[in-house]
Automatic annotation (TrEMBL):
GO biological-process terms attached to the record: intracellular protein transmembrane transport; protein targeting; protein transport by the Sec complex
Organism annotation: Saprospira grandis (strain Lewin)
Membrane topology type: Multi-pass membrane protein
Designated name of the protein: Protein translocase subunit SecY
Organism domain of life: Bacteria
Its biological purpose: The central subunit of the protein translocation channel SecYEG. Consists of two halves formed by TMs 1-5 and 6-10. These two domains form a lateral gate at the front which open onto the bilayer between TMs 2 and 7, and are clamped together by SecE at the back. The channel is closed by both a pore ring composed of hydrophobic SecY resides and a short helix (helix 2A) on the extracellular side of the membrane which forms a plug. The plug probably moves laterally to allow the channel to open. The ring and the pore may move independently.
Compartments reported by the entry: Cell inner membrane; Membrane
Name of the encoding gene: secY
PROSITE patterns in alphabetical order: SECY_2
GO CC terms of this entry: plasma membrane
Family according to the record: Belongs to the SecY/SEC61-alpha family.
Key words of the record: Cell inner membrane, Cell membrane, Membrane, Protein transport, Translocation, Transmembrane, Transmembrane helix, Transport
Transcription as UniProt keyword: no
SUPFAM superfamilies reported in the protein's UniProt record: Preprotein translocase SecY subunit (SSF103491)
Xref: Pfam families: SecY
Length: 471
């Protein structure tokens, strides 16, 4: 606790870092405020009344979207779609970069290419928001007809709210970019994390009331659940941070002497100078997102064919994220997508080319094809345990809700996308803050050294001041 207080004092003593943190907190507060501004023509109290009286019948995907938006989805707020359309657009642009030469060229064009990619991402975001906004209003009209005001004509209601939802998503995108540029960085990820964390206290209180009021296990079971939750968080942190290091060495090179003589000296060749990091989970949460999207295909097929979707049918079990068939299929999909996405991200040929440019090599491995094969073999071996661990964390919410009988709102945080995003963003934000602290300490050290040098040698100080008044 003492070290934490000292660290906070260090942060607060740096004006630039303090201003960045305050700006980030202010923009996050604006984002949370928008989650409670209701769309015109919708009675959110009626929606909450139907949700509470009808139980938790919403599909898992909608629960996930509601969690990512901090409850704005079922609040029918202007930020109901949140930043998710932008995330979808970013994924599309990233995948296009793997398949289309034009996008590959933009990725290699430096800052100019990145600006063009950002502009394309924004256009795709608007297009996705228009489609998702229409689907969202259709869902609200079909599921909660009593909540839609009859005083406003349906065309006006549809057109105006689609515009508002699109403007809300664009504004969220702007908030994220401002946090990235002027705040502590990772603005889009921080917005998602803020929405997820906003629903955590309510889920925690709901689970506590369930265990204490209904005496479904009592305080002992609740404490055990908290201990299990802490273990899952630790496992997620280990999965995010685990790295397999491939040691590299730099070849010897010759440098001339300072006096210009023809004799040269050999330099370099030290072991352990650098390494190639291969992350245990290089794919992040993308495999879970892709697998979760595919898990709703069977329900769509059943609806199209008119097949019965009861709890005792295969269609119904594949729609229930607490059932055994759902979790088995979901686990294997996560493992498969982890391999696919890692193969797209980790490029052994690119690593080998970079080693060649740096005049470096992997010990006991020949350059060229052997280096590519070695890196690919290491990445494949690392991906296997990483994909299994990611699949296990992905199905933990279903196990927590189905087997351990934990409340659905709290079970979502026992793994899956929500927990991994929170862990990754929190760790990255801490690294950003540590980076600012390190830069400040380095600057202070240099400044202190200059001041000590001037005090120790006044003659030199006077000469330098005369020659360079500004210095």
């Amino acid at each position: 606790m003492k070290s934490f207080i000292e660290k906070m004092k260090e942060i607060w003593a740096i004006p630039e870092l303090k201003n960045r943190i305050l700006l980030t907190l202010g923009l996050l507060a604006v984002y949370r405020f928008g989650s409670f501004v209701i769309l015109p023509g919708i009675d959110t109290a009626e929606i909450q009344k139907q949700l509470s009286s009808g139980g938790d019948d919403a599909p898992g995907l909608l629960d996930l979207l509601n969690t990512f938006s901090g409850g704005a989805f079922f609040n029918a707020a202007v930020f109901a779609l949140g930043i998710m359309p932008y995330i979808s657009a970013s994924i599309i642009v990233q995948l296009l970069g793997f398949a289309i030469p034009y996008f590959q060229k933009l990725q290699k064009d430096g800052e100019a290419g990145q600006r063009r990619l950002n502009q394309i991402t924004r256009y795709i975001t608007i297009a996705i928001t228009l489609v998702q906004g229409s689907a969202y209003l259709n869902y609200m009209h079909a599921s909660f007809p009593e909540a839609i005001s009859s005083e406003v004509g349906l065309p006006i209601f549809w057109f105006s709210n689609i515009i508002i939802l699109t403007a809300g998503t664009v504004f969220c995108m702007w908030l994220g970019e401002r946090i990235t540029d002027k705040g502590i960085g990772n603005g889009i990820s921080l917005l998602i994390t803020a929405g997820i964390i906003a629903t955590l206290p309510q889920a925690f209180v709901g689970e506590m009331n369930l265990k204490f009021s209904a005496m479904a296990g009592g305080p002992v079971i609740f404490i055990v659940e908290l201990a299990l939750f802490a273990l899952v968080v630790l496992a997620s942190v280990a999965l995010v941070q685990a790295v397999r290091k491939i040691q590299i060495k730099f070849a010897k090179h010759m440098v001339g002497r300072a006096d210009g003589a023809s004799r040269v000296a050999a330099m370099g060749g030290q072991s352990g100078l650098d390494h190639i990091p291969i992350k245990l989970n290089a794919a992040g949460v993308m495999p879970i997102i892709f697998a979760q999207a595919l898990m709703f295909v069977p329900g769509a097929i059943a609806g199209f064919l008119g097949a019965p979707a009861g709890a005792d049918t295969i269609w119904g079990q594949l729609a229930d994220f607490t059932s055994i068939p759902y979790n088995v299929l979901f686990f294997f999909l996560v493992v498969i997508f982890t391999y696919v996405y890692t193969a797209l991200i980790v490029n052994p040929q690119q690593h080998a080319d970079q080693l060649k440019r740096q005049n470096a090599f992997i010990p006991n491995v020949k350059s060229g094809a052997d280096t590519v094969e070695h890196i690919d073999k290491v990445a494949s071996r690392v991906t296997l345990p990483g994909s299994i661990a990611l699949g296990a964390i992905a199905i933990l919410p279903g196990i927590a809700a189905g087997v351990l009988q934990i409340d659905l709102g709290f079970a979502i945080f026992f793994g899956g996308t929500s927990l991994l995003i929170m862990v990754a963003v929190v760790l990255d934000t801490l690294q950003q803050i540590e980076g600012h602290l390190a830069m400040n300490s380095y600057g202070g050290f240099i400044q202190g050294g200059r001041l000590r040098g001037r005090r120790e040698n006044p003659a030199v100080d006077a000469t330098s001041t005369t020659e360079n008044p500004a210095g």
